[in-house]
Amino acid sequence: DFERAQKDVLPAFGASTEDMEMCARGGIVEYGEKLKQLQQSAASLISQLQQSERTPLLSILLEGPVGSGKTALAATLALRSGFPFVKLLAPTSLVGMGETQKAAVIARVFDDAYKSPLSLIVLDEVERLLEYVRIGPRFSNVVLQTLITCIKKVPKKSKLIVLATTSSLATLESLELLDAFNVTLHVPSLGTIEAIKVLKELGIGNISDIEPVLRTVTKGIPIKKLMLVIEMSLEKGAVLDPERFEKTLQETGLLD
Amino acid sequence: DFERAQKDVLPAFGASTEDMEMCARGGIVEYGEKLKQLQQSAASLISQLQQSERTPLLSILLEGPVGSGKTALAATLALRSGFPFVKLLAPTSLVGMGETQKAAVIARVFDDAYKSPLSLIVLDEVERLLEYVRIGPRFSNVVLQTLITCIKKVPKKSKLIVLATTSSLATLESLELLDAFNVTLHVPSLGTIEAIKVLKELGIGNISDIEPVLRTVTKGIPIKKLMLVIEMSLEKGAVLDPERFEKTLQETGLLD
Amino acid sequence: DFERAQKDVLPAFGASTEDMEMCARGGIVEYGEKLKQLQQSAASLISQLQQSERTPLLSILLEGPVGSGKTALAATLALRSGFPFVKLLAPTSLVGMGETQKAAVIARVFDDAYKSPLSLIVLDEVERLLEYVRIGPRFSNVVLQTLITCIKKVPKKSKLIVLATTSSLATLESLELLDAFNVTLHVPSLGTIEAIKVLKELGIGNISDIEPVLRTVTKGIPIKKLMLVIEMSLEKGAVLDPERFEKTLQETGLLD
Amino acid sequence: DFERAQKDVLPAFGASTEDMEMCARGGIVEYGEKLKQLQQSAASLISQLQQSERTPLLSILLEGPVGSGKTALAATLALRSGFPFVKLLAPTSLVGMGETQKAAVIARVFDDAYKSPLSLIVLDEVERLLEYVRIGPRFSNVVLQTLITCIKKVPKKSKLIVLATTSSLATLESLELLDAFNVTLHVPSLGTIEAIKVLKELGIGNISDIEPVLRTVTKGIPIKKLMLVIEMSLEKGAVLDPERFEKTLQETGLLD
Amino acid sequence: DFERAQKDVLPAFGASTEDMEMCARGGIVEYGEKLKQLQQSAASLISQLQQSERTPLLSILLEGPVGSGKTALAATLALRSGFPFVKLLAPTSLVGMGETQKAAVIARVFDDAYKSPLSLIVLDEVERLLEYVRIGPRFSNVVLQTLITCIKKVPKKSKLIVLATTSSLATLESLELLDAFNVTLHVPSLGTIEAIKVLKELGIGNISDIEPVLRTVTKGIPIKKLMLVIEMSLEKGAVLDPERFEKTLQETGLLD
Amino acid sequence: DFERAQKDVLPAFGASTEDMEMCARGGIVEYGEKLKQLQQSAASLISQLQQSERTPLLSILLEGPVGSGKTALAATLALRSGFPFVKLLAPTSLVGMGETQKAAVIARVFDDAYKSPLSLIVLDEVERLLEYVRIGPRFSNVVLQTLITCIKKVPKKSKLIVLATTSSLATLESLELLDAFNVTLHVPSLGTIEAIKVLKELGIGNISDIEPVLRTVTKGIPIKKLMLVIEMSLEKGAVLDPERFEKTLQETGLLD
Ligand SMILES: Nc1ncnc2c1ncn2[C@@H]1O[C@H](COP(=O)(O)OP(=O)(O)OP(=O)(O)O)[C@@H](O)[C@H]1O
Ligand SMILES: Nc1ncnc2c1ncn2[C@@H]1O[C@H](COP(=O)(O)OP(=O)(O)OP(=O)(O)O)[C@@H](O)[C@H]1O
Ligand SMILES: Nc1ncnc2c1ncn2[C@@H]1O[C@H](COP(=O)(O)OP(=O)(O)OP(=O)(O)O)[C@@H](O)[C@H]1O
Ligand SMILES: Nc1ncnc2c1ncn2[C@@H]1O[C@H](COP(=O)(O)OP(=O)(O)OP(=O)(O)O)[C@@H](O)[C@H]1O
Ligand SMILES: Nc1ncnc2c1ncn2[C@@H]1O[C@H](COP(=O)(O)OP(=O)(O)OP(=O)(O)O)[C@@H](O)[C@H]1O
Ligand SMILES: Nc1ncnc2c1ncn2[C@@H]1O[C@H](COP(=O)(O)OP(=O)(O)OP(=O)(O)O)[C@@H](O)[C@H]1O
Ligand SMILES: [Mg+2]
Ligand SMILES: [Mg+2]
Ligand SMILES: [Mg+2]
Ligand SMILES: [Mg+2]
Ligand SMILES: [Mg+2]
Ligand SMILES: [Mg+2]
User: Which residues of chain E does F234 touch, with a Cβ-Cβ cutoff of 8 Å?
Assistant: First the structure.
């Protein structure tokens, strides 16, 4: 009956949005054109699925280097979608479970989703959901098979968006999990100019003191590391200590 | 007794045809000669078995790239066969089961089939039925041994067609599962001309806007991806947004 | 006491001969000298053991390509031996059992055999009895060890012939199971001339229509595939449809 | 309620500080500039986190050769931090537990930490917490997944510092555990001059007798081995027996 | 008490000698100098141990190609030793047991042996006692560790000879089991001249008919295969059918 | 209380010394300078630890070829130490236990040791305590982790010497177990001159008869093998049979 069905769906709401808000709470700082394009692609796919008459399922993979902001972006997209059912499945939510239990929880979340006319499931750090380790390699085949099956399973009477994140596209490919996704969007790390843009957006007072060091960074700068380096050299009045900024860049591995 | 035997057979009917109809519901769009040949080969084999006096078993493997339409074709062939017993065994039907249980279900379905004079079993995504993963490689040997044995086992008093699909012929060969099949039929992805044929069949209004982009695709186009790209760029009046068409081609990996 | 001993032996009879008759029911079509030699060698070994005063055990391995007729030959030899105890152990008889249970059943069959003065055990598809898969490789060491021990174990008061089949001599060698057999006999696939001999034996009406295609086959033709290709192109009046014959040759992998 | 919460936190205190004091009891002998820099970096990061408004989590990895003093340094930093919650997780604390139990204890310690506004957890010999062995390689994936998840999990209402030690950076990288740490600090072994500095600091009476041998050492000298070699050649009056000093240098593998 | 101790020892007697007699019942045909040397070496070692005052343990490994007569020799030596405790441990005696149970039985037999002042244990086909298979490779480490420990364990108050056989010295070396044996004796296969000597010893009537074929054999001839080939071509009056002799040489793999 | 503590310690005494005396009962024959140096090094380390105020733990590894006398030396050192707690942990003491049980026993012995002010634990054949086999390689990681942790764990209120033996330094290194030891001492096999010294020490009457053969040995001679070869060729009146001496040298693998 309708009332029991409602209850089946409800408990999922609370938990998921609270965790998603944690993931999104750092905010999305605008750093340039690439970010805009990415946000627009995702938004267009989501709205197109909503309007489609024939396609009930869309699976999107956000892939990019460690710390490039995938989780924050996925959480923000989910929260802004306005879908009646949104749910986050992250390694943290499954900590301490055996592989069979993890697989069961995942299958359960998808079953819950099918009960809502419009659902969005975030699968955060897919490779870690299945306990993948490069050496071996090792992973939970039970979770992997469940994920492939759930991501490909066409809902009978409802619409579903799967929004997954990974920092290892190669792993997903070798696991033949990549084939299960309809589309793949790249989340990049930042160049020097984009990093300076971030400093401006954050209202840092002495950007000119920092710029010379930043210019010596030759690798891509993940937004998450950038935020930490800023924090670790922040002084009163939104000013950064240039020496500590440089040192932390080294300690985080961005400068050799 | 007869009545109990009937009951043993009956429950299988309902479930299987409902799932098969889900697999076949997208329809088979005609895209050219290759498709016709394929359909004809399958039909001829099925009817020849029906008439044979000496051969009670035929196992057919449909193999082709991811998304080339194997599942839809197998489901359609099964539904059109008019056999009194048709049954779909797909990864989705076995989700959440351990390998021993999966093997038992498979063996059970074959046992049910032997009770009907004329049966057709679809084994969808064979490599995933046995939880195969390239890295390792890993798979369920219990399920594999059960599949080989069931596919090769000659029914004593009835006739049986096994119709399996795979997107990895090499895997089945390395598992020595390929030897268990009597015949193998290839399901191709589409060339540009066939893709345009599909747009025509679907009544797309502005094919000439889309053609130039389609011509830049150098890979084979799986029908399943083509249908999604169309959906994701579809606008009112069966017109496609060329820009979004191109972008989704990229996001689905068909354009670099 | 004698009566219980009788019962222990009896149940094995029924089952085994029924299954063996299934394996042999397709018949042995005479195709030439090689087949005759093979049959004669086997018969001579069997009769020599029967007469020997000092040798109570003989283990014969029939090896040859997939579909070359090993199972049919072994079953026929067993049925013709006239031994009071004949028994077939095939993958089908063990389906659904765990490896320990399989090992137990095998050991049990040998124990039963020792109770009869003259016994013949057929071990069909030895590599699959032990669940061998090339990739890994994987196999049941429990079953393997049981097989080696049983095949080498000299009966104390009775005589025993073990007749095994395999389509992978290399596998048995790498498993050091080959050493357990006293003699090895090769079961070949057919050349074109032998294939035509088969068509004649079967009374096919239009052999001359088929001959040109058969001559283009460069691989060895397993008798089992040949029988299927014939069945799939058979028309009323023992005539073959040449076009369908060619096509099925392709679909079975005999023609490229 | 508050009282129960207090009790949940309290038992952890006692145990942890006692063990930490064991690890730190040998003291930190000053041997030069590198050590000072290292101590300063760690202190700066700890105090910056304490003051930060936006960053609630910081994970620091101390890596360096076997015996270079990592554990003593981590324990000293923890004890000096003055944080209300400090806790040591070392292989010794987990001896005799199965991998699931180890993972549970680790998760539990982190949960305890979240209850205190300011916490510091020392993870000593990370590669051994997860039972890593180079050959195989083998390790507990359950513990590994728990560690990655716990080290990356952002506390909701509190601040946490994770201070880990390892003597195999390469292992942590291959396990993709390195990515989980925000910053990495190197703990070096000593050169000859630094080793002599240590002898001075310890008030050894006959340094000039020892110096010639020490100068023949070409490898880096881990402080832990140096302390042992001194102990094993120590005579009354803080004098070292040069012959025994040289011999023990050989027996510890520092001299060839 | 003495009576219970007696019982503990007794049951082992019966079983072991009956099985040993089965192994030795084919007899030892004299084929030349090599065999004599071998028998003499073994006898000398056994008697030396009996007389020694300081050495309570001696472990002898008989190694040689498949079928070279190792088991028959070991059984004969054991039966002739006249030791109050002799016991055979062969794969057949352990069939159907799990690896832990096998290890327990082995340890038990050694414990029984320590209760007798003078014991001899035959370990037949050592590599198969531990379920060794070359591919993998696989083996039971539980059994292996038990074997190494038992073979090296010095009895406190009694004397013990361990007489083991293997057809794969390389395997025992790679398992570091070879180091556990004090001495190793080689059991060879036969050359043509030795084979003819065997025919003479057996009183074959038409040796001159057989000689030409025997001379074409270039491999070493294991005595066990030779005995079978003779049996399979034996006719009334101790005469061999030369044609069948040659054919069986081929079927047993001695002639190509 | 004191009495219970006493009991906890006591039972360990009996067992351990009895087993140690078995290991040492063959005696230590003086064969030259190398042996003296080795004994002196070990004695010096043991006495230095006894006197040290700051170092409560010392772990010594005796490594050398198979049969070089490691166990006898370790047992002798332990018995001569006069420590109130001495204990032998050897593969024989752990036979028949599962790996978890072995780990528990080891941990227990160390816990017992901490209760005595001065303890010495012999870990005999370390690689076999952890069931190491080169092929695979296989070993018990549970035992390995327990060993590393126990060997490195600093006692809180007592002093402990760990004296381990191994015949495979490379294995311990690859298991990263070598790092857990503070010092490593080499136990050599003998050269010809040292072997003759042994014959003299044992009062062999006809050394000149034996010398020529001994001089042809080019490998190092492990004392354990030398003792056996002597025993196997010993005749009344402490005279050796030169022929049998040579033969046994071959059969033990010392002469090719
Ligand atoms: N433009 C942005 N895009 C994404 N994150 C941003 C952006 N600007 C600021 N942030 C902040 O940067 C951090 C990105 O961290 P996040 O955990 O999302 O990265 P991630 O790629 O998921 O990392 P990981 O690979 O470790 O999972 C968040 O705290 C987020 O609030
Ligand atoms: N000619 C056609 N052949 C097959 N499918 C077609 C055809 N025309 C349209 N379709 C539609 O294309 C889709 C093909 O998807 P289907 O799942 O059958 O592909 P698949 O090869 O099984 O994919 P996968 O490799 O992922 O299992 C279906 O929705 C089907 O309705
Ligand atoms: N001369 C023949 N020898 C063997 N089989 C023959 C012969 N003539 C006809 N047949 C038929 O050919 C078929 C051979 O199939 P069979 O299962 O015995 O082959 P197989 O080698 O055991 O195959 P597989 O390798 O798949 O186990 C049987 O149906 C048999 O009746
Ligand atoms: N400057 C120093 N830094 C660190 N340890 C020092 C220093 N001076 C003296 N020590 C002493 O040296 C020893 C260092 O041992 P510690 O166990 O910390 O090394 P480690 O690197 O953790 O070793 P391992 O790699 O075996 O875990 C301690 O006893 C410590 O008291
Ligand atoms: N001189 C001989 N030495 C050994 N066996 C002999 C000799 N003469 C005759 N025989 C007979 O040859 C056979 C040798 O077989 P046995 O089982 O002992 O060989 P094996 O080397 O143990 O074989 P496997 O390698 O298969 O274990 C026995 O039947 C034995 O009676
Ligand atoms: N100088 C010596 N050093 C050691 N052992 C000696 C010496 N002289 C005589 N022996 C005797 O030699 C034998 C050495 O055997 P032991 O078991 O100690 O060797 P091991 O190196 O431990 O062998 P394994 O590598 O098999 O464990 C003992 O019986 C011992 O009594
Ligand atoms: Mg993330
Ligand atoms: Mg499909
Ligand atoms: Mg067959
Ligand atoms: Mg440390
Ligand atoms: Mg044998
Ligand atoms: Mg030893």
Answer: 48, 52
With bands split at pLDDT 50, 70 and 90, how would you rate the model's confidence at C13?
very low
HSE at residue F104, side-chain half, CA atoms within 13 A, is 7
**Does one domain contain both F132 and F159?**
yes
Partner-chain contact F252 E182, CB within 8 Å = yes
How high is the ipTM of this complex?
0.90
Looking at the partner chain, which of E138, E227, E247 has a beta carbon nearest the beta carbon of C141?
Answer: E138
* AA identity, residue F104: A
Tokens representing E49?
């141990």
Contact B141/C at CB under 8 A? yes
Question: Do A142 and A36 have their domain in common?
Answer: yes
pLDDT in tens, F180-218: 999 999 999 999 999 999 999 999 999 999 999 999 999
Residue C158 belongs to a domain: yes
The last residue of a domain, from among E186, E209, E237? E186
Out of C103, C149, C184, the one facing E253 most closely (by C-beta) is C184
CA of D41 from ligand 2 middle (Å) equals 59
**A168-191: average pLDDT:** 97
Q: Is residue F256 one of the residues assigned to a domain?
A: no
Residue F207 exposed, middle or buried by CB count within 10 Å (0-12, 13-18, 19+): middle
If asked whether residues C49 and C138 sit together in one domain, one would say: yes
Q: Are strands C118-123 and D57-63 parallel, antiparallel or unpaired?
A: unpaired
- Tens digit of pLDDT for each residue in B100-137? 999 999 999 999 999 999 999 999 999 999 999 999 89
pLDDT at F121: 98
Note whether B29 and B146 are same-domain residues.
Answer: yes
Residue F128's SS3 state is helix
- Interval D42-72: pLDDT, tens: 999 999 999 998 899 999 999 999 999 999 9
Mutate to test the interface with C, among B149, B163, B175, B184 (most CBs of C within 10 A): B149
Q: Amino acid identity, residue D120?
A: L
**D174 inside domain:** yes
Same domain for D67 and D14? yes
Enumerate residue ranges in chain E where pLDDT < 70. 1-16
Asked if residue D28 and residue D152 are part of one domain, the reply reads yes
**pLDDT-based confidence at F16, cuts 50/70/90?**
low
Reduced 3-state DSSP string for chain F: CHHHHHHHHHHHHHHHHHHHHHHHCCCCCCCCHHHHHHHHHHHHHHHHHHHCCCCCEEEEEEECCCCCCHHHHHHHHHHHHCCCEEEEECHHHHCCCCHHHHHHHHHHHHHHHHCCCEEEEEECCHHHHCCCECCCCECCHHHHHHHHHHHHCCCCCCEEEEEEEECCHHHHHHCCCHHHCCEEEECCCECHHHHHHHHHHCCCCCHHHHHHHHHHCCCCECHHHHHHHHHHHEECCCEECHHHHHHHHHHCCCCC
Q: Which residues of C touch B182 (CB under 8 A)?
A: 225, 228, 252
Q: Are residues D30 and D75 in the same domain?
A: yes
Same domain, C115 and C166: yes
CB of E224 closer than 6 A to ligand 5? Answer: yes
From B26, B91, B225, residue closest to A149, measured CB to CB: B91
Instruction: Mark yes or no for CB contact D252/F156 under 8 Å.
Output: no
Whether F26 and chain E come into contact, CB under 8 Å, resolves to yes
How much is the mean pLDDT over chain A? 92
CATH of residue E41: 3.40.50.300
What is the residue range of F226's domain? 192-251
Q: Is residue D143 part of a domain?
A: yes
Q: How many domains does chain E have?
A: 2
Q: Of E163, E186, E209, which closes a domain?
A: E186
Among the residue ranges A16-20, A40-44, C77-81, F175-179, the one predicted with the least confidence is A16-20
Identify the weakest region by mean pLDDT among A22-26, D89-93, D238-242: A22-26
